[in-house]
Amino acid sequence: MIDGIWRLGGASHFILLVLLKSWTSFARPRLITREIYYAGVMSLVIITVSGLFVGLVLGLQGYETLQKFGSESAVGTLVALSLVRELGPVVAGLLFASRAGSAMTAEIGLMKATEQLSAMGMMAVDPIARVVAPKFWAGVFSMPLLAAMFSVMGVFGGYLVTVVVIGVDEGSFWSQMQNAVDFRYDIVNGVIKSCCFGVVITAIAVFEGFDAPPTAEGVSMATTRTVVTSSLAILGLDFVLTAFMFRGVA
Amino acid sequence: MQRTVMDFWVGVFVMAGMGALLILGLKVGNLTSYQSEDSYTLLGNFENIGGLKIRAPVKSAGVVVGRVTHIEFSLETYDAVVTLSMDSRYRFPKDTFASILTSGLLGEQYVGLLPGGDEDMLKNGERFMKTNSAVVLEEMIGRFLFNKAAGD
């Protein structure tokens, strides 16, 4: 318990340091592009494929239930709202944490274990500004884009299974969806959610990496902790954000 | 500045992300039907709004012509004041009848407009003269039971 408080304090201090030292990495955008490539571009395949399958399943299950009430044309609304509001940010966040977050932790942890970070310090290169801050901003930037792609692929999957395969009317699929999904209320809130998740995931990942004991076992434990902690943080934070954003309909 | 393959893929990634946001806005959401700048507001006093909510559609002859933007209780008249944001393409006569209707038996509630025959049109910020409250199912059942008991 006391140890947890120590770590929380250390993490807050560390994140503040990262924010303060970000200016040096903004001056070298090449560092951030490189990290966007590893965190964002490399996650594209898993994000789009899972989005597609989540959409397919949502469409299939939604159709099964809604057709009992004769309102199968509302399946577009169901798929779009659940993806844009909840599943897009949350599932993309979970995948991002396990795909990119764990890689960040492992990379920073290994650099620490092999004393590359101390070597940088010896050369008067601040490892937080050079290694940690670009990773942090790349994660924060990539996450909303990945969540948006996840939602689009999901809607496309729902469209495939309900309109193309089952044969729900295409016009009512899209028009009911557009009637129910509000840009400001649903889509912007979903994007805000995914931005929050991006900050939380990458903050946890870079801190766990930087804080890892410099041994093989320590790095593996830190990687595990990143995935577990950020998954729990996403789910808990999602509940809080939903309670604020979607409490009743205005 | 030298260019690398990595930069190309980051560019593709950012473009795909922005494209996804655009698709969400235009195809999934209702960004296309947003015309906040060319709209005008109308007010209506209703005795009972039932379950009418903000963002509920305003329809005339089944076509969406506006949206409910604000609902508030008036202490002067002790009824509900509903603010409607209307599409400025559609103008309605002064004696238009506004009523709160339900789509289907259990569907969402909306404001239905029945245009009158007046020459003058409603202007920005004006009130509907004639309104009709929402039908509350419990009241109707209560009245029905009451009539039934009185008849026996």
Radius of gyration of chain A: 21 Å
Mean pLDDT of chain B: 84
Number of helices of chain A: 10
Tell me the greatest interface: A-B, 31 and 27 residues
Number of domains of chain A: 1
Number of E strands of chain A: 0
Main structural class of chain A: mainly alpha
Low-confidence stretches of chain A: none
Unreliably modeled segments of chain B: none
Question: Numbering strands along the chain, what is their spatial order in the largest sheet of chain B?
Answer: 1-4-3-2-6-5-7
Total tally of structural domains of chain B: 2
So what's the overall shape of chain A? elongated
Query: What percent of residues of chain A adopt helix (DSSP H or I)?
Result: over 70%
Condensed summary:
With 250 residues, chain A is mostly helical.
List keywords for this structure.
heterodimer, A: 250 residues, mainly alpha, 10 helices, B: alpha/beta, seven-stranded mixed β-sheet
Folded structure, characterized:
The complex is a heterodimer of chains A (250) and B (152). Chain A has 250 residues and is mostly helical. Chain A has one domain (2-245). Chain A is built from ten helices and no strands. Chain A has helices spanning 2-20, 22-26, 29-39, 44-66, 75-113, 116-122, 127-166, 170-180, 183-211, 216-245. Chain B folds into two domains: 1-34; 36-141, no CATH class. In chain B, 26% of the residues lie in helices and 32% in strands. Chain B has two helices and seven strands; from the N terminus they run αβββββββα. In chain B, a hairpin with a 2-residue loop joins strand 2 and strand 3. The interface between A and B is medium-sized, with 31 and 27 residues.
